[in-house]
Amino acid sequence: MKGSKMKNCEMTPADIAKERKELFNLLKRSVNKVYSNYPKVIKIQGLEQCVAALIYAQLFQEISASEYADLDLNSEYNKNCDSVKATPNFPQGVRPDIILHKMRSNEENKIAIEFKGWWNNNSSKDIKKLKDLFSNNLEYRQ
Q1: Which tens digits make up the pLDDT trace of 9-36?
Q2: Smallest Cα–Cα separation from 76: which of 115, 128, 47, 32?
Q3: Is residue 54 included in any domain, yes or no?
Q4: The domain containing residue 46 runs over which residues?
Q5: Does 115 reside within a domain?
Q6: pTM
């Protein structure tokens, strides 16, 4: 079904639910493959960026073989077109660990992912960042 993907503004609630499920399954499959193939890395405390990079690489493969292949998968991406990706809680900008979107546009923002290692319980900043990005009041949520 390559090319059947619609822009966010053209989607019905049923389309959105279906797409969320598809994207969640791509991410879940990627995470499961990383956990299966790199158990030693997962168990070592302090390797959050390493694990995020492995998941990014696996997700890139999954996305490339999906109907979302024409979108951009980026890591630590902090741009909103030509400016900084600012939000109310982060006026200096945010950098999601991984984002699936169309670069230089806000019409097809699909996923923003933040990672936290199993040893780190302080996710309040990441949660605030994701809430800002998915707020109906910002242009990122189209």
Answers
A1: 678 999 999 999 999 999 999 999 999 9
A2: 115
A3: yes
A4: 8-133
A5: yes
A6: 0.85
